[in-house]
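Render this sequence as a predicted structure.
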Amino acid sequence: MQSVTLEFRSEDLTLLGILPPGLFAKYEEIELIETLRLEQGWRLQLLRVRRRGPLRTAGELERESRRIRSLYGLESFELVERRPRTRDYILLVRQRNPERLRRLLSLAGGEIAPTAPFRLDAERVVASFRGEERALRRVLKRLDREEFPYRIVRASGRPFGPGAMSPLLTPLQAKLLARAWVLGYYAVPRRITLTRIARQTGRSATGLGKVLRRAEGRLVARWLATEGGPAAEPDLSTAREA
């Protein structure tokens, strides 16, 4: 598997119809957390969206749902979490793919998937993809042929991002651990419950908890093995005998 990170100018992607006009008038930054489903005609993604001003309430978003969907070409969106302190929404979004993106996905043949880092702001888009090398080369050649302006920031023979942060985690453990972290499960205090994450992943809270605990246990075991862990507490009974 090969991974590649590309950089585009946001202005160019807007002119090419990939990004909707005026997107960054209200939003400062968009980050792709996870792609749950990617088809030629549509995609289902979990996004972090940072607003330029105060966040709307859940009720206000619901009342403006039709206008928002029409403005940004969304089939549906669901508010997962509001983070007023950082002005972030966590949204589950189903979106229609523009024609250029449909052609690229058709060329990729299901062998390429978006991965981290994947961020958009008013100036640039940093987009990462992981997949078979031959499929990535086909897509890059198409971008060159269509004079699609981009530059390669990084290319690697090893995937990077949540799925590659530690070889001792299984792909499922890495995926669910990364999602739990991003959604604030490990924040103090927690911003989301295990039950709510479980509903998003189609799992039971008990099953999800077991996956996370096994992943946590492996990470702790690796840390203890590589760092030596905390200094051992003295054995008081042995000290008295000495």
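Summary. Residues 162-227 form one domain. Strands lie at 2-9, 27-38, 42-51, 74-83, 88-96, 112-121, 124-131, 151-156.
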